[in-house]
């Protein structure tokens, strides 16, 4: 077995050195993105239209670091309303070309545009008249010459010290992929509810859950009339366990809320009063379609533990802070 080459002895980097390197890399890549933003590839709009017109999926491929970027773009597209998948170019040459159909559209990534592993995919697109979008820095390369739409990234220095490791180039590809995804989202009018359907798990899914799916229904809402005696109000608050009671008028419209804090602030002569005398007449409420994250923000701002859910002014549910904790919003 060959012996490993001894590591070259180098002087250790100081904390300041490391910070300076980080700043240099971030600045280099940020400036590259800004340069591309000032000169978005000419075919960008046409590429978006071609994807919108495709009846099948967006198929992405690339090798090495370009392949990793292609996987990420495919994932972003799929999660934002544009069905997409990644096909490994080597596997494509050994049978997976059958996954790419005439109803699809391909996006192939290659920094040099001369990646040999992409040749079979390029030929497959030409044979079956599959629209091909190329992403590369080399406008005259084999990939870009064969492409129907050319997303040419600026040919700028890599951010690494030897100028060879894919850094700036992959950042530009990633940014262009995000730009495609967002343009397609807006063209499809992709809304928050649809986004949640693709992200049901984890904290993000919880934050995007509408209040109507987690609130207690109307039968669990503690309600009293404006003229209800405070003794009865306290019994209602205790029976339902939310620490609040909603106050409604004769039409069933929520006109106030009595909380534990309101009881403490009105201890003097409390039992001689009625609900309307003690209630906060400007209650914080939410609608059934309010997102859980928005409901949490409302409760935090108002410093309350329970939130009444109303529809056209009438209470249809109640949400407790613990319910948001239970589904993982907090």
Description of the molecule:
By secondary structure, the chain is an alpha/beta fold. It has two domains: about 20-190, Rossmann fold; about 210-325, CBS-domain (Roll), CATH 3.10.580. Helices cover about 40% and strands about 15% of the residues. A five-stranded parallel β-sheet has the order 2-1-3-4-5, sandwiched between helices. A four-stranded mixed β-sheet has the order 6-12-11-10. β11 (about 305-310) and β12 form a beta hairpin. The chain is elongated, with a radius of gyration of 30 Å.
Helix content: 40-55%
Task: State the CATH class of the largest domain.
Answer: Alpha Beta
Oligomer state equals single chain
Shape: elongated
**Element order, helices and strands?**
HHEHEHEHEHEHHHEEHEEHHEHEEH
Distance between the termini: 54 Å
CATH topology of the largest domain: Rossmann fold
Q: How many domain units?
A: 2
- What integer is the average pLDDT? 91
Regions with little confidence, pLDDT below 50 for 5+ residues: none
Strand content: 15-25%
Rg computed from alpha carbons, rounded to a whole number of angstroms: 30 Å
Derived structural class: alpha/beta
- In total, the number of strands is 12
| Major sheet description | 5 strands, parallel
By DSSP (H or I, 4+ residues per run), the number of helices equals 14
* Strands side by side in the biggest sheet: 2-1-3-4-5
CATH superfamily of the largest domain: Glucose-6-phosphate isomerase like protein, domain 1
What CATH architecture of the largest domain do you see?
A: 3-Layer(aba) Sandwich
């Amino acid at each position: 077995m060959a012996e490993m080459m001894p590591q070259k002895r180098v002087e250790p980097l100081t904390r300041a050195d490391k910070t300076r390197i980080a700043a240099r890399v971030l600045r280099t890549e940020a400036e590259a993105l800004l340069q591309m933003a000032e000169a978005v590839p000419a075919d960008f709009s046409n590429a978006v239209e071609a994807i919108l017109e495709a009846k099948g999926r967006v198929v992405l491929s690339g090798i090495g670091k370009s392949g990793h970027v292609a996987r990420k773009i495919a994932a972003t597209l799929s999660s934002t309303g544009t069905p997409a998948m990644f096909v490994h170019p080597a596997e494509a040459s050994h049978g997976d070309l059958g996954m790419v159909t005439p109803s699809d559209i391909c996006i192939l990534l290659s920094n040099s545009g001369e990646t040999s592993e992409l040749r079979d995919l390029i030929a497959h697109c030409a044979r079956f008249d599959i629209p091909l979008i190329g992403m590369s820095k080399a406008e005259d390369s084999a990939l870009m010459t064969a492409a129907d739409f050319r997303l040419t990234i600026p040919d700028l220095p890599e951010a690494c010290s030897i100028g060879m490791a894919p850094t700036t180039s992959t950042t530009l590809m990633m940014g262009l992929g995000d730009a495609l995804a967002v343009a397609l989202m807006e063209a499809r009018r992709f809304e928050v509810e649809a986004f949640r359907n693709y992200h049901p798990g984890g904290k993000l899914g919880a934050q995007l859950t509408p209040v109507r799916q987690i609130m207690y229904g109307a039968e669990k809402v503690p309600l009293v009339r404006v003229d209800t005696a405070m003794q009865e109000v306290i019994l209602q608050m205790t029976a339902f366990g939310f620490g609040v009671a909603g106050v409604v008028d004769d039409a069933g419209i929520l006109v106030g809320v009595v909380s534990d804090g309101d009881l403490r602030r009105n201890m003097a002569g409390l039992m001689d009063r009625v609900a309307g005398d003690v209630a906060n007449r400007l209650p914080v409420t939410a609608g059934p379609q309010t997102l859980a994250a928005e409901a949490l923000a409302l409760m935090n701002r108002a410093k309350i533990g329970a939130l009444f859910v109303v529809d056209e002014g009438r209470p249809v549910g109640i949400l407790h802070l613990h319910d948001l904790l239970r589904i993982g919003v907090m």
